[in-house]
Amino acid sequence: MPLLIQNRRIERPGSTVDLFARYPHLQENARVFRSMPVVDVDPKCLLYIQQREFAATTPADNSVAVLGSDDATTCHLVLVRHTGSGAACLAHCDGSSTWSEVPLIVKAVTSLSKDPAKEGRLELHLVGGFDDESKTSHKLSLNLLSAFQRQKEDIHLETCCITEMNDVLVDGAHRPGVHGIGINIKTGEVFPASFPYKGPAEELRSARTFTGGQMADIYDSNKGVVKIGPCKWSPNLDISFWLSQDDDTILKYLSTSPTAEPPHFVQHIKSTIQFLLEHPSSDSVFPGGQPQHYRRTEQGDWENVNQT
């Protein structure tokens, strides 16, 4: 069980309430984090992580200065950083395959931290979830903690702003206090954040997740290239049904937390469905079964590039 708090190995908590009762400093750290101002991140330095995606990079990266993700309700944002190399990996986890996802996140950081001259430790930051009625957040919180305990590396839990410590009441309804986070790769600073830009290829990436895609590594930090797919989906014209439904119906059936979604959730779902209707076969998006690649331009935008 290599998950540590204040350099001491922890036992698996029976609940998040138990965890915070045992380690009150985690409560205080969570309160401080939740009270920090939300930063609007400049797209020209950002790599945005969507649901069921992760990306890792180092301070030597000239294309990405900030990793970020938001729109998390019951989902959790998982950040692992090595203090010596500065390598960091951010993932947006929804509980679909926690046990297989956590080793990928840890490996993404350790594989970029092999320089023996840069000794350090692995630090974990968990943000997300709230006190939702179905207890989806609670289950994911505990599964993530358990999955990290199973890793062979020592991992130090630094930020734990999850579930009830990320819960706020708005007009009598429970909501997550922090929806998004960013990390400054150069400094290691972790902060609450929002992102007006969620690209590149926002709709394509959303379509991958909507049609059942599993956790995917979307970034090659050595090349500064975002890689999407290839992935498969089949024609499904039945999904056009949702485009005629009202917002409440879409929220009720397509969200794990209908009362806590951001205002743009329904439009996001509709644009994803529209993309799938316009591309009923994934073959048209990935000709020859090849992935889509994106590289940062000198102006700071992501552009589609052809690669062999």
UniProtKB/TrEMBL annotation:
<dbReference type="GO" id="GO:0008418">
    <property type="term" value="F:protein-N-terminal asparagine amidohydrolase activity"/>
</dbReference>
<feature type="region of interest" description="Disordered">
    <location>
        <begin position="281"/>
        <end position="308"/>
    </location>
</feature>
<dbReference type="GO" id="GO:0005634">
    <property type="term" value="C:nucleus"/>
</dbReference>
<protein>
    <recommendedName>
        <fullName>N-terminal asparagine amidohydrolase</fullName>
    </recommendedName>
</protein>
<dbReference type="InterPro" id="IPR026750">
    <property type="entry name" value="NTAN1"/>
</dbReference>
<dbReference type="Pfam" id="PF14736">
    <property type="entry name" value="N_Asn_amidohyd"/>
</dbReference>
<dbReference type="GO" id="GO:0006511">
    <property type="term" value="P:ubiquitin-dependent protein catabolic process"/>
</dbReference>
